Amino acid sequence: MAQYQISVDSQLLHQLFLGNTQDSGVAKLLESVLNQILQAQVTEQLEAQRYERTENRQGYRNGSYPHQLHTRIGTITLSVPRIRGGKFTTELFARYQRSEQALILTMMEMVVNGVSTRKVAQVTEELCGTEFSKSTVADLCKRLDPIVTAWNNRPLSDSRFPFVLVDALYLKVREDGRVRNRGVMLAVGVNTDGYREVLGLMLGDTESEESWTEFFNWLKSRGLRGVDLIVSDDHGGLVRSIRQQLQGVTWQRCQTHFMRNVLDTSPKALKDEIHTHVRAILEAPNPEAARLLLQQTLAAYEDKAAKAMRILEAGFDDVTAVLSLPEKYRKRLRTTNSVERLNEEVRRRERVIRIFPNRESVIRLIGALLMEQDEKWASGKKYLDMVEYLEWRESRPKSVSKVTRIM
Predict the structure, then answer these.
(1) Residue 15's pLDDT band (boundaries 50, 70, 90)?
(2) What family is it from (predicted)?
(3) Which of 138, 227, 331, 360 stands 20 to 30 A from 281 (CA)?
(4) Sheet containing 196-204: which strands, arranged edge to edge?
């Protein structure tokens, strides 16, 4: 990823901290930064600074033209460089505005369909112009929807994903004149290079076994393969679908949800003690040590917290499945926390919308957000160093290998 030297003058900082409104200062600061990035990018493409004489020069600057960028902190004006006899290219606008466009489009649809509040109408008009119509919304959707749809249906066969984490969240969607709760199913994979990747999202009527089965079949049809461990909560339909559709894969029950289940059924006076014992089980160095600690905990509390101990014993094998992996991989694979952090980002935008005007707007907004997150992961640091895992997997006897081959 390119790195740029950005400078900020004192007048901008003065406006940022002492101006009449904070948003206006942030908008000016953002405008200055993005204009500097555009100038740095045209220098990269021409391979020459302004007025620099060099044999490597690829062209000449030819002024600039204004381009307005609508953001939630106001409208900013950028000076987009022109190149004589050529074309200046940048992904800056598309990357910055993709999720912004999805959010604004959803709000616009609410207004067009007559289901929004007066405030939403004012916000969308301020961001998108004085007026907009159904045809305006349709034209904008035609530009953004194919990009999100293509990303969400891209082939997965180029990589293997030993670790997969799945979760769901519920949103309100207006359908046939009624507001209905709909489940959004989401999967994140860790590939053999150690990078996280959003595998896809799907909107279902409910979080049922049938919906999850459709979701996993869709992932497999796109080439999902090499799955060794899948992490999720204990939703009945989800677990049954995993065991049916991903046979041979080890299922890791989310330890955060499991701990909550145990403590919710524990006597109040014993919650802290039981939490300490269960945490020791989950952090044991190996499955044998975990089972020994389990027997000690059951013996100590089976009379005083019978229901909690039944949950602990019944879920032990699934919640400690991650202990079979090398130790360095356990912490990040024992819960669905990383997926739930994605859900929090979705919730932050969903609170603005509250009720989605249709199913398409759900995929558009959430897909745009996840697409941008996917790009950040791909260009950032590795989530896991997979060398030790791959060596460990190859050293396992073939008869006990649980890696599923999804061709």
Answers:
(1) low
(2) Belongs to the transposase mutator family.
(3) 227
(4) 196-204, 178-190, 163-175, 229-232, 250-253
* Alpha helix stretches (DSSP H) within 222-286: 236-245, 255-264, 271-282
pLDDT at 112 over 70: no
Q: Is 357 left (phi over 0), alpha (psi -120 to 50) or beta?
A: alpha
Distance in angstroms (rounded) separating the CA atoms of residues 289 and 359? 48
**Would you call 323 helix, strand, or coil by DSSP?**
helix
Token look-up 């049809």 returns 221
* Phi, psi for 230 (deg, rounded to 5): -125, 135
Instruction: State the residue for tokens 């620099």.
Output: 52
CA proximity to 383, closest of 50, 161, 204: 161
Helix (H) or strand (E) holding 97: helix 92-112
- Cβ neighbours, 10 Å, residue 212: 27
Burial per residue of 10-49, b for 16 or more beta-carbon CB atoms within 10 angstroms, e otherwise: eebeebbeeeeeeeebbbbbbbbbbbebbbebbbebbebe
Q: Alpha-carbon distance 53 to 199, whole Å? A: 48
pLDDT confidence of residue 294 = 97
Facing residues of 179 across strands?
Answer: 174
pTM of the model: 0.70
Pairing status of strand 61-71 against strand 178-190: unpaired
Quick one: which of 304, 277, 308, 305 has its CA closest to 293?
277
- The residue assigned the tokens 């019978």 is 306
What span, in angstroms and rounded, lies between the C-alpha atoms of 255 and 243?
A: 19
Helices (H), 286-336: 287-301, 306-319, 330-333
Q: Quick one: pLDDT band at residue 238, thresholds 50, 70, 90? A: very high
Q: pLDDT of 136-157, one tens digit each? A: 556 666 677 888 899 999 999 9
* Side chain identity at residue 84, one-letter code: R
Check if the beta carbon of residue 156 is closer than 8 Å to that of residue 222.
yes
- Rounded CA-CA distance 209/252 in Å is 18
Quote the CA–CA distance of 90 and 82 in Å, as a whole number. 12
Q: How far is CA 259 from the centre of its chain?
A: 24
Q: How far, in Å, CA of 242 to CA of 232, rounded?
A: 10
What's the pLDDT score for residue 67? 79
CA distances from 175 to 54, 136, 304 (A): 62, 22, 49
